[in-house]
Write a structure and sequence with these properties.
Layout lengths: L4 H14 L4 H52 L41 E3 L8 E4 L15 E2 L2
Antiparallel strand pairs: 1-2, 2-3
Amino acid sequence: MPGHPRCCAGLVSRARASRGFTLLELLVVMVIIGLLAGLVAPRYFDQVGKSNVKIARAQIVSLGQALDQYRLDVGAYPTSEEGLDALVNKPQNEPHWSGPYLQKAVPVDPWDRPYQYRSPGEHGDYDLYTLGKDGRGGGTGENVTISSW
């Protein structure tokens, strides 16, 4: 019945329930999401940086083991000129080469740059290192030099 008060009260409450969120409510939710992202994102990206450093260290250890196996077979580490490619492709005039010493191609560091290799090295029989994210060496965090020595 159109003039009945109960009927109108039901229509008003249904209208309130279906009108949605106000602009202020949406802004408050967006601010809360922004604050949470501001707190979580730096920690997440810090973990990604730490992971890249751990990956580089693990790859250097793996490459070092392949270099040691090469030395056992050939009698010396690859020269700087032969480089890490000698772990995958037989150098000329190496009759005792029994590689490949890596299952796949020589990996690049987590920042898509080749690992630096020098033999004889300044810190041992060979130097194997990456200069970190910034490519300059030294530094801290992701910008640290990661080396075999």
